[in-house]
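Q: Convert this sequence to structure tokens.
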Amino acid sequence: MPQNVTIRISPAEAANETILIQRLAAAAKTRPQNINAYQIIRRSLDARSRNIVAQLQVNVFINEEFYDAFEFHPNLQNVANAPEVYIAGAGPAGLFAALELIEQGLKPIIIERGKDVRARRRDLAAMNKEGKVNPESNYCYGEGGAGTYSDGKLYTRSTKRGNILKSLQWFVHFGATERILQEAHPHIGTNKLPGIIANMREAIIECGGEVLFDTKLTDIFIENNQVKGIELNNDTRIKTSSLILATGHSARDIFRMLAAKKVLIEAKPFALGVRIEHQQSLIDAAQYHCPIGTERNQYLPPASYSLVSQEAGRGVFSFCMCPGGIIAPASTDEGELVVNGWSPSKRDGQFANSGMVVTVDEKDFTKYGFTGPLAGMKFQQMVEQKAWQVGGGSLKAPAQRMTDFVSGRLSNSLNPGSYLPGFTSGLLSEVLPKEVHDSLRLGFQTFGKKMNGYFTEEANVAATESRTSSPVRIPRNNETLQHVQVSGLFPCAEGAGYAGGIISAAMDGAKVAVAVKKFLNQ
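A:
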């Protein structure tokens, strides 16, 4: 058995194999020449002081044969003639549900309203260059879901919800670098993830599964509180006793359909706010304790941050921070404006952006006249529509310099930024609910005290960051994972309120697939 050792070492030394082996030998109490192999199991960076160190957990093989701790042998069997299971949505939950169904000996059929990853690019280009929104193909809808073109962050705190390692191993199996198995905050990058997603789809099809694009779930047939079938594209009816509903946090038509059918759904708190953009060099300087304007040490990655505070009785926190990233339009309908962020795999862009959001709940929805299970969704729409109006349309994002946002002034000019449809000067107090706006104003000042240089006129604040999670929960039984009222309906992942990112959604999809297997074997 290898020795598992933990060492703290400078990033430069960690990149030098000779020095690294010497440090591993010292930790394992052996000579360097006795180490015939090693494997990094966990890698993180501690930048809390000027003496920045990499912390490595390593399996050290001393005069023994190497074995791979991350070895992975999935059971991708032929299921062409197996019982069929329908999955609505080709995001991470739907894809990982399909992979798990194949391992369970069932045939997955994924129905996806949007397009494949390659065809999606044309619609995303039209959003960025022409300000046009295709309501069926955008940053939220299409193969791979919202995460495919918004970064591929693979970090999750949901350690008890499923097998995180297996989820990451699937990504490596389909083309991701093995470093994602080691990193404390793994990340693939928008330039790499589409190819990996396409490889997943091809494997599902090779095993006998099906993936149907431009295919929209338009109805669910329920009799005696049991799923009996589904309707696709308003014209095709299919008999089925089970449905995995993995349609994502933005599928408002699904929420409306369930509400109209009197299927129990609930309004859910979510987070709402803005996206803020700094120069990456400023964030590097703040986090790595070096003068602004100096180049980052070549052995250090672009710096990120995580900020949280309590302001006016509400939590204010950073969300989906993108080092070296780009702000992108994430609207799913004309007349609504949503912004999101992503980074390429190298995270080597000029800017750093992050969502900065405040939790809103039923009390806020009611205050603005929204009640019932769709109250949060309608509240969300209200803010997005205001952002569109203040921005002037065509996906122009209303923005202020950070200092002007706090002072309540219209910005005479804005900083250069990465948002391709363009920023336009506007008062975000006319977009955001007062409670959210006031909490953010206080939060920015607090964060400026916590992080040197953060509160600055050289940062832009743009509206609106509103698709942080689903505003609706579709309740399910904790044991069977079926809807609490409807047998055979399996609400899944972000759209149902049970996940909050790629990995947590993937794990939930796999978990639901196992539950479907048990249901069909009854």
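The chain has a mean pLDDT of 95.
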